[in-house]
Write a structure and sequence with these properties.
With 244 residues, the chain is α/β, with parallel strands linked by helices. It has a single domain, classed as Rossmann fold, CATH 3.40.50. Helices cover 45% and strands 15% of the residues. The protein has helices spanning 18-29, 41-50, 64-72, 97-125, 147-167, 185-191, 194-202, 212-223; strands at residues 9-13, 33-38, 55-58, 79-82, 129-134, 172-179, 234-237. The longest helix is centred in the middle third of the chain and has 29 residues, at 97-125. The structure holds NADP nicotinamide-adenine-dinucleotide phosphate (NAP).
Length: 244
């Protein structure tokens, strides 16, 4: 999607690989100043080799205080994409305390810690803004072996609605994108098995998984003024999975 973000500073979390990496490169080509946040330095180094204009922040989002300090150091931010995520996939009865803590720390709590810093500064500067939280079709629909992940994405959707409610009066919009399977490292974790993939594909009316670009086109739309009356919404990028 060819929308210019000239003059905008955009923070993308989880930009070391997968959806976030591609998004950071796209937004930089669209003339934004991009700040890419992730936890593995080698991945961020690889990103800046591809595009030296992208600034990087290396921090583990599980550390609330370090994360808030790191985000404060790159203010002001005009547009934010909370994309970082993890998936611990196993039967519900085998899920551990560590699985629950890791998943909720990264998928849910980091949205709170990062957004608080960004939003307080937007309100102080009296500027409008747009935040996109990367959720999943798994927030709407139970998937086998995804109990903790599904619960975390359900929390992301409701957190997003509440943020939209409270931040709307400040002209700060907050939405989610909710993709189906995308064959990133995370996607491969759950869906490399041909039989599992076949079963999932049979439930997607368009008959295929999403491409990274299709997820990022939706994010770009929600970041941009083309969606200026949309807030608190969950934008499906799932080939009709949730309609079936
Ligand atoms: P991915 O390829 O595994 O990339 C995840 C990114 O998140 C990586 O850059 C990773 O950092 C970062 N991250 C994870 N834990 C972190 C932490 N503690 N601190 C800082 N950064 C951390 O995953 P993806 O498929 O692109 O997923 C992106 C988002 O899309 C996630 O929210 C995911 O839930 C959602 N989603 C994915 C799918 C799918 O099928 N792939 C479907 C629906 C929704 P490092 O590079 O440092 O490892």
């Amino acid at each position: 999607m060819n929308i210019s973000f000239e003059g905008k500073r955009i923070l993308v979390t989880g930009a070391g690989q997968g959806i976030g990496k591609d998004l950071a490169l796209h937004l930089s080509r669209a003339k934004a100043t991009v700040i890419a946040l992730s936890k593995t330095k080698e991945n961020l180094d690889a990103l800046t080799k591809l595009d030296p204009t992208i600034q990087t922040v290396c921090v583990n989002l599980r550390d609330w205080n370090m994360t808030q300090k790191a985000v404060e150091s790159v203010l002001p931010i005009d547009l934010l994409v909370n994309n970082a995520g993890v998936a611990c996939l196993k039967p519900f009865v085998n899920a551990t305390l560590e699985d629950c803590d890791l998943t909720f720390d990264v998928n849910v709590k980091s949205i709170v810690s990062v957004s608080q810093v960004v939003v307080k500064d937007m309100i102080r500067r009296k500027v409008s803004g747009s935040i996109v939280n990367v959720s999943s079709q798994a927030s709407h629909c139970a998937l086998k072996d995804h109990a903790i992940y599904c619960a975390s994405k359900g929390a992301v959707d409701m957190l997003t609605k509440t943020m939209a409610l409270e931040l709307g009066p400040h002209n700060i919009r907050v939405n989610t994108v909710n993709p189906t399977v995308v064959m990133t490292e995370m996607g491969k974790l759950g869906w490399s098995d041909a039989n599992k993939a076949k079963e999932m594909l049979s439930k997607i009316p368009l008959g295929r998984f999403a491409e990274i670009k299709e997820v990022n086109d939706a994010i770009v739309f929600l970041l941009s003024d083309y969606s200026s009356m949309t807030t608190g919404a969950a934008f499906p990028v799932e080939g009709g999975f949730l309609a079936a």
